[in-house]
Specification:
By secondary structure, this protein is an alpha+beta fold. It has helices spanning 7-10, 15-21, 27-35, 125-132, 152-160, 197-204, 235-243; strands spanning 12-14, 39-41, 44-45, 51-53, 58-60, 63-65, 73-78, 106-107, 116-122, 140-147, 163-164, 167-168, 173-179, 183-190, 209-217, 220-221, 230-232. It starts with 6 loop residues before the first helix and ends with a helix. The structure holds uracil.
């Protein structure tokens, strides 16, 4: 007869294996440490043969191990009305309220409270640094709806660079998708990440951004993901991001 194994049980591991996989030493060495009372699980001295769960706090000589969390990469369609932070001092909803995972991931870069679109969350610090470091000049593409008509000279000025806080913005790509007398919808690609950059670029040519949505980071696109939904990045997508 097949006995069903619960998902939680599958996430348990024998302590010596867990320690060995965390680089503490061979299983035999780990057994010695356990037998000598140097290993604690959630603050209690562990016994030989103990099992540990992914979420347990394991220490050897009071130093945490097994903190080598599984790397986790999430793509969220951030809706407006959420702060891009782990915790908001003003008590507003944060993007973390939308994510229901055990992993301690955090947002990479920032989208304004009223901006929606593609946001990556991960616990991979190397990738997060790579994606946000200005030196890497990673393209980010937005759809912006602005009030009024964007003239050709304004569009071209935005592409060449405008002054934001007295510093000229780097070359950008601005493509008008559609416009009427009241508003213009355009696709904007920038590789800088200054605060409120897109809004302030338009402000510099006298235009107000009414709606802003990030649709791509490099060639990674938001696609058809619904607002507030998230999915794991595929291995291929993660490898791609590492090449940016
Ligand atoms: N530029 C902005 O102005 N806001 C964002 O959220 C992202 C880019």
């Amino acid at each position: 007869m097949l006995i069903p194994i619960s998902a939680e049980w599958r996430r348990m591991k024998r302590l010596n294996k867990y320690l060995a996989e965390s680089g503490v030493g061979s299983r035999r060495e780990c057994d010695r440490l356990i037998a000598g009372g140097s290993v604690k699980i959630n603050g209690k001295v562990a016994l030989l043969g103990a099992m540990v769960h992914d979420n347990d706090h394991v220490t050897v000589n009071d130093k945490r191990v097994g903190d080598r969390q599984k790397l986790c990469y999430v793509l969220l369609h951030k809706p407006k009305g959420y702060v891009t932070t782990v915790k908001d001092d003003l008590g507003r909803k944060t993007v973390m309220d939308l994510i229901h995972l055990n992993a301690r991931i955090y947002p990479v870069g920032r989208l304004d409270y009223d901006t929606e679109g593609l946001l990556i969350l991960t616990n991979d610090g190397d990738l997060a640094n790579r994606l946000t470091h200005p030196r890497n000049e990673i393209n980010k593409t937005y759809i912006a709806r602005i009030s009024g008509i964007l003239t050709e000279s304004e569009r071209s000025l935005l592409e060449r660079g405008v002054l934001v806080d007295g510093v000229k913005t780097a070359p950008a790509r601005v493509r008008i998708i559609e416009q009427d007398r009241h508003r213009t919808r355009c696709e904007v690609t920038i590789h800088e990440g200054r605060n409120h950059q897109v809004k302030r670029m338009f402000e510099a040519v006298g235009k107000e951004v009414e709606f802003l949505k990030r649709v791509a980071i490099g060639d990674l696109r938001l696609g058809g993901l619904k607002r507030g939904d998230y999915r794991f990045l595929t291995d291929i997508e993660v490898e791609y991001l590492k090449t940016l």
